[in-house]
């Protein structure tokens, strides 16, 4: 995917009355090449390009796959996943996949995806609903872009996201087909290596990745774990 170089920065209008943080956010949004591209490509947010870049490099999504997308709102990862696994049947003569998204917030409909909006993924009852909806009760890929609301305290944000990671790892071990893949967002901190080592016991390839679309000034990082081996 190519982006044209921006020669002049766009300065937002009507920023009077906004806090310094809001002004900074607005300026960054207006000048962000991924934000601009997402409007052209009809993605709900710039996060779409993180999954696109990850999949272009690591190949985790294929037509016919069943995908669980945890923390799916507003829905850009699900938009990407639906196309890649052919959940909407738009790739002729290819297997039809499935995408199930879950989020605390509401998620607008996407053709080919099933959503559990206003649902806390860490709750057993929600995970049961996902299991029942999955074809054969199994998934080929579990994605988690879940993130707690930022507290502004780096160590606390790390702790909070690790609680979400723990829940999604347990779920994945239960639900993934042999050879399945797992992708999870973390915010960097002291427990990240423990999670990486744990995943190495049941996936063949496990590593940290930071796609170009993930902002360099953010502590956000992803762990990709490929080829699940249930017997290990
Ligand atoms: C960065 S956003 C995800 C963006 C999404 N991947 C996309 O491309 O549209 C993180 C999401 O995680 C959700 N989230 C946080 N904790 C959650 C939980 N316990 N259960 C479900 N969703 C959760 C938030 O509501 C938020 O919408």
Automatic annotation (TrEMBL):
Provide GO CC annotations from the record.
mitochondrial matrix
The yes or no answer to whether the keyword Methyltransferase is present is: yes
Query: Mind telling me which InterPro entries this protein's record contains?
Result: RNA_methyltr_RlmE (IPR050082), RNA_MeTrfase_FtsJ_dom (IPR002877), rRNA-MeTfrase_E (IPR015507), SAM-dependent_MTases_sf (IPR029063)
Instruction: Name the family the entry cites.
Output: Belongs to the class I-like SAM-binding methyltransferase superfamily. RNA methyltransferase RlmE family.
SUPFAM superfamilies in the record: S-adenosyl-L-methionine-dependent methyltransferases (SSF53335)
Ranges where the Ribosomal RNA methyltransferase FtsJ domain occurs: 43-228
User: Which cellular compartments is it found in?
Assistant: Mitochondrion
Protein name (database record):
rRNA methyltransferase 2, mitochondrial
Q: What UniProt keywords apply to this chain's record, in alphabetical order?
A: Methyltransferase, Mitochondrion, rRNA processing, S-adenosyl-L-methionine, Transferase, Transit peptide
Q: Has the keyword S-adenosyl-L-methionine been applied to this entry?
A: yes
Output the Gene Ontology terms for molecular function: rRNA (uridine-2'-O-)-methyltransferase activity
């Amino acid at each position: 995917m190519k982006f044209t170089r921006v020669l002049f920065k766009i300065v937002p209008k009507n920023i009077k009355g906004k806090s310094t943080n809001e002004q900074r956010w607005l300026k960054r949004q207006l000048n962000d090449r991924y934000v601009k591209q997402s409007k052209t490509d009809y993605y709900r947010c710039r996060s779409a390009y993180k999954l696109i870049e990850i999949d272009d490099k690591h190949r985790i999504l294929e037509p016919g796959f069943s995908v669980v997308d945890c923390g799916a709102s507003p829905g850009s990862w699900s938009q990407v996943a639906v196309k890649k696994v052919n959940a909407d049947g738009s790739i002729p003569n290819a297997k039809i996949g499935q995408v199930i998204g879950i989020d605390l917030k509401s998620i607008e409909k996407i053709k080919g995806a099933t959503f559990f909006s206003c649902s806390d993924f860490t709750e057993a009852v929600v995970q049961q609903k996902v299991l029942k909806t999955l074809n054969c009760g199994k998934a080929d890929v579990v994605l988690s872009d879940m993130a707690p609301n930022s507290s502004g305290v780096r160590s606390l944000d790390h702790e909070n996201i690790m609680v979400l990671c723990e829940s999604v790892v347990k779920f994945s071990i239960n639900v993934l087909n042999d050879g399945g893949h797992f992708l999870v967002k973390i915010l960097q901190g002291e427990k990240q290596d423990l999670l990486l080592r744990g995943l190495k016991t049941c996936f063949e390839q496990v590593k940290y990745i930071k796609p170009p679309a993930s902002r360099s000034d953010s502590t956000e990082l992803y762990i990709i774990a490929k080829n699940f081996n249930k017997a290990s």
